[in-house]
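Subject: sequence -> structure tokens, single chain

Hey, anyone have a minute? Need the predicted structure for the following. Not urgent.
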Amino acid sequence: MEDHDPALLKLVYDAKRFVLYMRSIIEMAPLQVYHSGLLFAPQSSLIRVGYFKNIPWVTMEPKVVDVWSSLIQTLEGHTENVTSAVFSPDGKLIASASWGKRIRLWDTSTGKQCGVLEGHTDSVKSAVFSPDGKLVASASFDNTVRLWDTSTGKQCRVLEGHTSHVHSAVFSPNGKLVVSASWDTTVRLWNTLTGTQCGVWEGHTDFVFSALFSPDGKLVASVSHDKTVRLWDTLTGKQCGVLEGHTGDIHSAVFSPDGKLVASASEDKTVRLWNTPTGKQCGVLKGHTSGVISAVFSPDGKLVATASSDFTVRLWHTLTGKECGFWGHNDLVNSAVFSPDGKLVATASADKTVILWDTFTGKECGVLEGHTGNINSAVFSPDGKLVASASEDKTVRLCNTPTGKECGVLEGHYEEVNSVVFSPDGKLVASASNDSVRLWDTSTGKQCAVLECHTDFDRSAVFSPDGKLVAFVSCGPTTFWDTSTGKQYGVLEGPPSNSVVFSPDGKLVAFASWEKTVRLLDTSTGKQCGVLCHADHVDSAVFSPDGKLVASVSWDKTVRLWDTSTGKECGVLEGHTLGVNSAVFSPDGKLVASASEDKTVRLWNTFTGKQCGVLEGHTSYVNSVVFSPNGKLVASASDDKTVRLWDTTKKTTIEIIETHAKIKIMKFSNDGMHLYTSRGVLQLKPPPHSGGNWELPHTLTHSLYVTGQWITCNTKELLWLPADYRPSCAAVNDTGNLIFIGSGCGRVILISIDFTALPAAYLQPSVSAIAGKSFLGLVSC
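Reply:
Had a minute. Here:
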């Protein structure tokens, strides 16, 4: 065999990429290599081609990229938002900092964790290596900077003096000094050998977010909430320049390798380039759709990488200012950094991952046909044959669920699309954007109306029960429109609304406002017919099943009941100790359940207004609550990432389900055996001696759910999702076998499961040793 057999080299390269990409699941659940590993490997991967056989229970496979993308591997282990990641000078290590009070060290060649630095008593905002790689400096919200020995992992200095959170710390080029930036509005200089403070620089008028040395160590640049970059002389401590021009907070700044440029990243969605000697602006990098958190130059200074709260990392040519690369996470990206040779970029994200990217592939970030920006929402049509997704890329896309193919790109918005909804008959789609609400014909994909009210922000649209009217929530007057003509049918003058709901018969609309009111509008006349008042912001309102009552919830800690025929208050439900987030009537209208920031669900008698139950157990805000079809159960969803099932008669907890995500929207299946949520379907256990709906034929036999890292079936881990396929949003069809996943970088996938072909172990939900508690996965996301 020749020394350089091209076929063998290609196979070895492919195997290396496969192992790095799938490393975490190989270590955690090796048999997933034959399912997720091969299923999500690129079409042309030699490992996939050689070993992949159709999985019998996957009837619609996800569309994957043709070749290996720029994502090399994902370093998983943090349990909280990752705030920064940085390479060691020799490129062999990465240090990542997180809200979890720890710094983790990783081996870049294998992706394995090789150290945990513990000692901070609050979130760690940043970590950086010394020039010789022997030390790490970490900045924390515990008001300290700490120095660590990288060989032993032991703490060797605590730099104390700041009187508020320390946002960043960085070594001087010779490693003898550390400069730190703090919310106490100061920049401080420290001697790394002794740990003593040797300078306090004052001049900023607000929080200082970061400070760093120029390559020759003679200057320090600091950035602040006061929207300026300030330059300081390291030797004298005197201010020698103020760079002004940003219109929003500046999060970070960095010198180019030759020190001739400074790049500053701002909440105004731009990165600005400045000439260091003159202090003049010499370039503006525009393209991000949300604030830019950090910017960094490549080692040769020819590229700039920027990290943003729009979930993306972008690459730019320094000389031309043109964008030349685009990568996505599933949450805001806190930082990006080049490896010493410039071949890799490491990005740290609030999705709890650090991802390595290959800079040479540029725009080839592996995005399938589909969106090019974060997907904000997705929804199935009433018949389940279509999925509509709304994105930051200003488009709505339609996908045919039987085939998995895209069947329409709805273009016309010139701002990001926030939400999308089908009409009750599925013939129309309404998309809400910062520029307008637009109606589209789902059969042709053509735009059939532009509903403009000239406000700054249109959050969502709601169809009437018969689909003849559409109302939308905006930052201006609330309007509703005739869907057949596209003409405005009515305007509700007054404060902007934050939620809209039609009565069951469609004759009334209730608009809830942060201006302490609920307004009722008669849809037959288009005129306002009632104003219902609270003492604080009103979050939402809901009609009783017969439409005779409205229940409104408010930050004033109350639920109020109103007679829709007279507009008069007929009950004040008091008892919550914090704001109320949502309320719902029982199917027979005799009870109201309310969810509150006081971590409780409360039950109320509709006729007497008296509290008849307090459901306690959640450890954080309760966001939503819903009754089962027979009214015997209540399900509540909380920021503690659990859903709790309650017996409304006994006022006891029946089941606690770990959801691994904050669930905002829920509804029971018709048989009461499942909960449809914004992450999939949760299968519920029948309560003891339940009778009732559990004895009826089930509308669903099994349930799919996305935890973040896993697609689960009946609470058991079924398919592991690689980092670049994890959801920013997800939806499951009514039959529970088809799951839609939209990712942060715009990737869209559909996966269909044949439950009859699944191994028997998946066909019954798993139950833990703790009574009444089921787990959706071994790893939290």
